[in-house]
Amino acid sequence: MTPDLSIVVPLYNEASGLPFFHRKLSDHARRVAEARAMRIEIVYVDDGSRDATASVAADLQPHGIDVQVVALSRNFGKEAALMAGLDHARGDALLFMDGDGQHPPEMMETFVSLWKDEGYDVAYAVKADRTDEPPARRLFVRMFYRLLNFGAATRIPEDAADFRLLSPRAAAALRRLPERNRFFKGLSSWIGFRQKAVPYRPAAREHGSSSWSFLRLLGLSMEGLTSFSPAPLRMAGMVGALLAGAAFLYGSWIVLERLIWGIPLPGYPSVVVGLMVIGGVQLLVIGIMGEYIARILSEIKARPVYFVADHAVRHAEPVSEKSMAVELPKALP
Q: What are the TM regions of this chain, as residue ranges (predicted)?
């Protein structure tokens, strides 16, 4: 039978902690399924891990919950893994969460309650604070969201995580979006409907280490900006206008100095500095335009976002009821 809720979990190098995470997630999912009379499945998506994550995931047992394991042919990135989970999920509603254990599975009850009892279509987790992160990273995140929401028609909540639940109609709307350069947080906010933020504190990693380096975060930020927001182009235009205005004022001032006060024209250093500044800004604007053109080219090529190497579905075996029959003693001869 078709599940009511699919839990999509992207994986990357999580072999050491995956068995413990699976048992914990299965226990909470089974508890919710029994309390709500729902059918729930878990969809693990291995994003080309370099360790034994794919083989460990393939051996996971369905502890009362159906389990799908989708192994991608290589590492396509988290956004592609989320899309693979979206495509393979059989449930009407979707719950996305990371497989590193930092998204608490016990919040599942809260998300389902917001969906079933209060009628919210999107319930998403938001970090309560970032005091445990370095100041440079907090500043980078704040600047990223300011730039992302600059002039945007739909505001993307700051500090929102991929950990969220989408109701059936919200999941159906997300499935209708055709673009290949996807920014999941932005798309799930753009579809609208009733949305609710749920503060949470990420749990500490019990196994392994995070694979998100600063360069990968920077790449994801550029992906989000260029695929969802025109802010970089607008800011580049504003910088160009400011430089043009400053150059005009400076040129006018030089002419006035020469004609009125007889001050000789400045030498080559000012000219060279001006050319370097203008040339640097031009290269920056060309680079930003190149990022947008690269996204357009990717959409025109229409290449598949991912390829699946292996796919397996394990159905949970129904719990057999214990027989209440009592064996009667054999009649004496």
A: 235-256, 268-294
Element containing residue 301 per DSSP (H, E): helix 268-301
The tokens describing 235, both together, are 């800011």
CA nearest 308: which of 119, 73, 11?
Answer: 73
Burial of 168 (0-12, 13-18, 19+ CB in 10 A): middle
Higher pLDDT among residues 276 and 200, named by residue: 200
Domain ranges in the chain? 5-211+304-314, 231-301
pTM of the model: 0.69
Question: DSSP character for 65?
Answer: S
pLDDT at 136 over 80: no
Class of domain 5-211+304-314: alpha beta
- The DSSP H or E segment spanning 42 is strand 40-46
Question: Model confidence over 180-195: pLDDT tens digits?
Answer: 777 787 788 878 888 8
Write down the H helix ranges in 149-228: 168-175, 184-190, 214-228
Query: What DSSP state is assigned to residue 265?
Result: P
d(CA 209, CA 313): 29
Is the pLDDT at 276 greater than 70, yes or no?
Answer: no
Local structure of residue 107 (DSSP, 8 states)? G
Helix, strand, coil fractions of the chain, as percent rounded to 5 = 45, 15, 40
Does residue 314 sit in helix, strand or coil?
strand
Distance CA 85, CA 80 (A): 9
